[in-house]
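To illustrate the input format used throughout this study, we show a single complete record. The first block contains the structure-token representation of the backbone; no residue identities are included at this stage. The design step must infer an amino acid for every position from geometry alone.
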């Protein structure tokens, strides 16, 4: 059986090279040699999880438990542990050092194997209730008693979910592809469908990636929306019909229903079913077997209530106790699997048709949506959504497939900016990538009496031609040249939108605009006509009110 020591050595080799190609090659070489079960385990561990996403068992072995066991084995004091941690900055390294100082070494040491270690952890993860924490600590103790320092280092890193070998998920997929001579795109797609790299690696080895499909109670990543900067863009210039859906302000959930079981998964793919027991019945009635996507909101008096109300539900240990105070409604807007058929590749138009045919009832509702084909109707839909108390719209292409894990332009979110201000540019900086040669990042300010005070920095929203023109202008009106950054004469006024105002000591105004984006250059305004710090302060105060009212 594959040794844990080899797994640790492979990870260590990967961490020691800075070259991505070499990391992938090293890992591929290691994975290729593993038999099926070990391959499955190693790949899951490589994603920073002991159990695949959506597994009903959870292995929570926190920092405190790891430290407790290490102290017990080595006799290290609290102080020693903290000093060691401060010096090394990583609990895995601390584990390696303390395991080397173990007071008693077992007489007979069986080498740790991937399967053996996993079996022990998996069994500990199934223990529920009172004995759960003790079972996990006991399992960890047995493993750390057996482990060599290097083995302990990677065991602890796996358990704390951070391998620190410089391999992002994309590279892991590449390594699996390289190990089994599979096309990287096929590995990626299978991984998006299964959310379980262990399973994907096994399929790749058998040459069966094509059979990967959505599975019940295996949550996968959500499709996300890009930002809509201009309503006309949503319609693709020419009149194209799109689906304008209400944008609900709550939490995103993926619903899986099969047999008598219903599960709700959050965006982080965690199982949040237990927080919303009242949804089980209506979800069971919806259809016998399906996977759907939607947004869960606090629902008071036939309207969505602010997100802060919903948070009260998420935090509670006894969800039914607050269910009456904070009722919820689940708005479904997509259907991804129905019975045995995956629907991801069907156009939204068709998925929506099938969703509408389900048996909605109780607090499970169909998201409000309307087909629109011109800018005016889109604007009306936006106003109507706001009138219903929702944030705005998510505008979706009717011909679009569902792309798990992607934030593209097929879905565009349009919410009312919290506010807009006219600001004066006081600094300009060279951008990155295709904006490397132009001054595209602007530091801007508002008036405090006759002084300008900085409130933020923005680098999105303007067209290339405008940026080119501004670059010329700023180069001619540079007051101090600090290399990449130019202090410029306060002559250009921009209209910026943002989501919130926060207190900040980063800028001399004491405030910072959150997520500022440039709407346009206000050539019609002189710098003297720009906004003032009083306006910023008023916006800051205004945004606190809704919170205070709930
Ligand atoms: P934001 O959180 O502002 O980036 O907006 C994206 C989020 O809007 C998504 O992740 C969903 O949780 C949420 N949302 C609300 N209504 C919809 C909808 N009809 N379609 C897609 N996402 C929605």
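Output of the design step:
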């Amino acid at each position: 059986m594959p040794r844990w020591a080899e797994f640790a050595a492979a990870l260590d080799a990967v961490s020691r090279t800075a070259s991505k190609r070499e990391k992938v090659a090293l890992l591929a070489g290691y994975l290729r040699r593993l038999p099926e079960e070990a391959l499955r385990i190693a790949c899951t561990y490589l994603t920073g999880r002991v159990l695949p996403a959506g597994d009903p068992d959870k292995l929570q072995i926190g920092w405190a438990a790891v430290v407790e066991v290490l102290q017990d084995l080595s006799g290290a004091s609290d102080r020693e542990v903290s000093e060691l941690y401060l010096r090394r900055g990583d609990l895995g390294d601390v584990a390696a050092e303390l395991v080397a100082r173990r007071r008693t070494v077992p007489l007979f040491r069986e080498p740790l194997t991937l399967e053996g270690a996993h079996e022990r952890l998996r069994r500990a993860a199934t223990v529920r209730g009172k004995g759960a924490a003790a079972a996990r600590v006991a399992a960890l103790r047995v493993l750390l008693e057996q482990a060599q320092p290097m083995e302990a280092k990677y065991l602890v890193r796996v358990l704390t979910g951070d391998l620190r070998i410089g391999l992002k998920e994309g590279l892991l997929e590449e390594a699996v592809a390289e190990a089994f001579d599979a096309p990287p795109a096929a590995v990626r797609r299978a991984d998006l469908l299964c959310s379980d790299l262990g399973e994907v690696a096994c399929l790749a080895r058998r040459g069966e990636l094509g059979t990967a499909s959505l599975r019940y109670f295996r949550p996968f990543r959500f499709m996300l929306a890009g930002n809509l900067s201009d309503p006309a863009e949503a319609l693709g210039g020419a009149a194209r019909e799109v689906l304008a859906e209400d944008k609900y302000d709550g939490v995103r959930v993926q619903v899986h229903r099969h047999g008598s079981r219903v599960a709700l998964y959050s965006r982080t793919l965690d199982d949040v079913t237990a927080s919303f027991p009242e949804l089980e019945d209506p979800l069971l009635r919806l259809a016998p077997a399906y996977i759907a996507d939607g947004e869960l909101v606090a629902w008071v008096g036939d309207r969505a209530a602010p997100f802060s109300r919903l948070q009260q539900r998420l935090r509670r240990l006894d969800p039914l106790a607050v269910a009456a105070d904070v009722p919820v409604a689940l708005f479904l807007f997509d259907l991804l699997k129905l019975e045995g058929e995956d629907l991801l590749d069907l156009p939204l138009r068709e998925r929506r048709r099938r969703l509408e045919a389900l048996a909605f009832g109780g607090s499970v509702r169909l998201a409000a949506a309307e087909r629109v084909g011109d800018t005016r109707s889109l604007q009306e839909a936006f106003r109507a959504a706001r009138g219903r108390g929702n944030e705005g719209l998510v505008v979706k292409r009717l011909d679009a497939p569902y792309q798990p894990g992607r934030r593209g332009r097929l879905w565009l979110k349009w919410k009312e900016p919290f506010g807009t201000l006219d600001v004066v540019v006081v600094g300009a900086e060279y951008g990155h990538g295709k904006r490397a040669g132009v001054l595209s990042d602007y530091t801007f300010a508002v008036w405090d009496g006759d002084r300008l005070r900085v409130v933020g920095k923005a680098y999105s929203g303007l067209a290339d031609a405008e940026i080119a023109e501004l670059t010329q202008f700023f180069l001619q009106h540079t007051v101090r040249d600090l290399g990449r950054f130019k202090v410029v004469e306060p002559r250009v006024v921009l209209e910026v939108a943002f989501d919130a105002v926060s207190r900040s000591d980063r800028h001399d105004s004491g405030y910072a605009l959150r997520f500022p984006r440039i709407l346009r250059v206000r050539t019609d305004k002189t710098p003297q006509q720009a906004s003032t710090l009083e306006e910023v302060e008023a916006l800051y105060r205004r945004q606190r009110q809704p919170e205070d009212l709930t």
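Structural context for interpreting the output: Residues 224-225, 245-248, 252, 295, 333, 367, 394, 413 surround adenosine monophosphate (CB under 6 Å). The first strand starts at residue 224 and ends at 227.
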